[in-house]
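Researcher: I'm preparing a figure for a lab meeting and need a structural model of a single chain. I don't have an experimental structure, so a prediction will have to do for now. The sequence is pasted below. Please return the structure as tokens so I can convert it later.
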Amino acid sequence: MKYTVIFLLMLIGYTSIGKKNGSVEEELTISSKILDRNIEYAIYLPPDYQNSDKRYPILYLLHGGGDDHTAWLKKGNMEFITNNAIRSGNAAEMVIVMPNSKPGKSRYFNGYKGEWQYENFFFNEFIPYIESTYRIKEGKRFRAVAGLSMGGRSGFVYALHHPEMFSCCCPLSPGAGALEPSLARDFYGPRGFNDASDDELLEYDSNHSILRLIEQFPDEQNNTVKFYLDCGDDDGLSVENALVHIALKKNDITHEFRIRDGNHNWKYWSEGLEDILTFLTDNFNE
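Model: Understood. Here is the structure written out token by token.
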């Protein structure tokens, strides 16, 4: 009898914990007319999503180079970290969507020849589809973008291109792009731009270099997106991130800058995710 009672109490405890966990679907797709193919995505739905009619803030969480839409789940432990952050009160319940950019050479960006229009897809098809399919709170106040490495740079560029869309942008270890226009060919050449003219490269660089975009950022938008920039002190991109911080500071763009002990790896990014979720929560709740 004693052991039966203990077992039942443990079962109740486990069930209670289970109810506090969110759910994940990894292999979902959206049919894109712009890209002429199906694009995969994964989604995290917060603990009470299935049992309520509430609407939630949303985070678009982008993967890095060489990975796909499942990387944050399989390598970054995102589900466990998010469940713990919500359970502990450090993060609000939110929907987290992870799209796949892997098929295209330009990945999350539009190709300079127009053959791969991922950024157009993301804003014109993907966001409208997600936010009409799932119960998402309306407006930029409840929408954020984050990512690591290539995904961090892409999310950063997205927010600089479309400040009207996001309240927060949280890049982890992003590259800045070509640091000088004169380095554009060296930077973009290996990324499939070998046949681009000098003018095409310079135009593309102007539209996709974080440093150039910060210089072009409209003054009236300076406080409309809150940026959270985080890079390890042993990361090869730490100098670029310091330059981005300086550029943001010079242009009076609201941001937080973090340098933690670490390198360009999943340990660093996983450890930084809860801080991002807390940062987003503070801003979603303002």
